[in-house]
Amino acid sequence: MSHTDMVVIPNTPTLVAEENVEKIRAAAELAAKEAARIHRVSLREKKEEKKDRLPVQGEMFETDKGEQIILKQKLGDGAMGHVFLISKDGRAMAVKTEKFSTGMLPMEIKVLLSTMREKCKHFCRIHDYGTIRREYNYMIISLLGRDLYRLRSEMPTRSFSISTTTKIALETLESIEELHSVGYLSRDVKPSNFAPGLRDFKEHKTIFMFDFGLAKKYVDREHRKLKSRGEVGWRGTVRYGSLNAHKRLDLGRRDDLECWFYMLVEMHVGELPWRFLTDRTAVGKAKIHAREEGRPNFFFKLPQQFETILKMIDGYAFETRPEYRQMKKLINEIRVENQCSDRIKWDWQTDESQYSELTEAVSVMSDMAILAEQGATNVTDRNQG
Ligand SMILES: Nc1ncnc2c1ncn2[C@@H]1O[C@H](COP(=O)(O)OP(=O)(O)OP(=O)(O)O)[C@@H](O)[C@H]1O
Ligand SMILES: [Mg+2]
Questions:
Q1: Which of 149, 192, 195, 376 is deepest in the core (most CB within 10 A)?
Q2: Is 96 annotated as a binding residue?
Q3: Is Oxidoreductase included in the keywords of this UniProt record (predicted)?
């Protein structure tokens, strides 16, 4: 049924008093005008739907401030959008984009504005954000190094040493604590959502947390903790999801920590027992097995403090404030026992990466050269079309 059909034209009564005829005619005219308006709106919406898209490498757009931004190189392909390298005010930065209709960036922007307001250490700065012609949304953020998933995959052993793992554990735990302290849950803690900063910016010793597409406030305006909403459906990524996520339950701070725990085991051991399983139920069962009969095998390559940490997380209720400090203490204990040096050198740090991590392509290739190479379409005129 079209919008035109939906408009109700007043019924004409069989016997109409003379003075009512004018009223009825006016009402019918009004209804016809409304039908035409609805028809125009639906045509416009259809046209806009067609324009809903992701930008491509080499493309250029203009910000609300009139700045021209060229998408130099794709840095990441997310489930919802693409991340590109850009140069702004003479500095390399990243821009995350999503289709206009996706609508997850506004939450990410809210989170990053909060972490920036509170001067949190483990989050990108947000430099600008906006929408391009109802086609895509963008946010310009600090540029980071390669994410932890890629860095681990590039290791010959596909695992990190105890020194790097425990240092990552401390950095990422601090970032989760900071996120919780500004009132948000991540609900998608996983290696590909963390990355070290760049040496070029003297941020290589810090691990940053990003991707807040699934983030959620867990406190209300009066800073009161929200109650569990019971069963709400799956949130997050199957491999790192908490047992509560498998049960489709509402997630709290403890669930972010359970994901964090799986992530650490994978980093140090090189794999999780459920790595080849794709079925959610089977993965859930494997996570329970790792706590029961599979326990000795699961913890075989891990310091005993890992067992204590999982026991703590498993003991928390939805509302419990995790004991971040106690966990940090346990991780530092592992560092002492393993004689890890205070001067951190990440496993991925080679002599070459002592200097610039911004590759030649990044620092040398000029905007003009990229435009020429890509045959870029200029889509800066937001008022067009
Ligand atoms: N600031 C940044 N600097 C450098 N690379 C980045 C930055 N932000 C994201 N990336 C890269 O882009 C990838 C995708 O980004 P992000 O996780 O934000 O997108 P997403 O669509 O929400 O991802 P997914 O849903 O697949 O987890 C990251 O895993 C990372 O490799
Ligand atoms: Mg991600």
A1: 195
A2: yes
A3: no
Cα 351 to ligand 2 centre (Å): 29
Q: Is 303 helix (H, G, I), strand (E, B) or coil?
A: coil
User: 78 C-alpha to center of ligand 2: Å?
Assistant: 6
Q: Which helix (H) or strand (E) holds 217?
A: strand 216-217
Q: Which residues of 62-80 are buried (b: 16+ CB within 10 A; e: fewer)?
A: bbeeeeebbbbbebbeeeb
HEC assignment per residue over 323-373? CHHHHHHHHHHHHHHCCCCCCCCCCCCCCHHHCCCCCHHHHHCCHHHHHHH
Active-site residue, from 147, 188, 211, 347: 188
| Closest ligand 1 atom number to CA of residue 83 | 12
In tens, the pLDDT along 362-383 reads: 543 455 554 444 433 333 332 3
Regarding whether 71 and 152 lie in a shared domain, the answer is no
CB 238 within 8 A of CB 285: no
Could you tell me if 246 and 369 lie in one domain? no
Judgement on whether residues 93 and 124 belong to the same structural domain of the protein = yes
pTM of the model: 0.83
Angle between helices 253-269 and 162-181 (to 10 degrees): 170
If one compares 39 and 210, the residue with the highest pLDDT of the two is 210
What is the best residue among 83, 87, 140 to mutate for testing ligand 1's pocket, by most ligand atoms within 8 Å of CB? 83
SS3 249: strand
The pair of structure tokens assigned to 111 is 């989170």
- Closest atom of ligand 1 to CA, residue 208: 1
> CB burial class (10 A; 0-12, 13-18, 19+) of residue 209?
buried
* Residue 104: inside a domain: yes
107 lines ligand 1 (CB under 6 A): no
Where in the sequence is the domain holding 223, given as residue range(s)?
A: 148-347
Point out the ligand nearest to the CA of residue 96: 1
Residues 95 and 181 in one domain: no
Residue with tokens 């075989």: 300
Residue 284: give its domain's CATH number.
1.10.510.10
80 lines ligand 1 (CB under 6 A): yes
Mean pLDDT of all residues in 169-191: 97
Nearest ligand 1 atom, CA 150: 31
Q: What's the mean pLDDT when you consider all of the chain?
A: 87
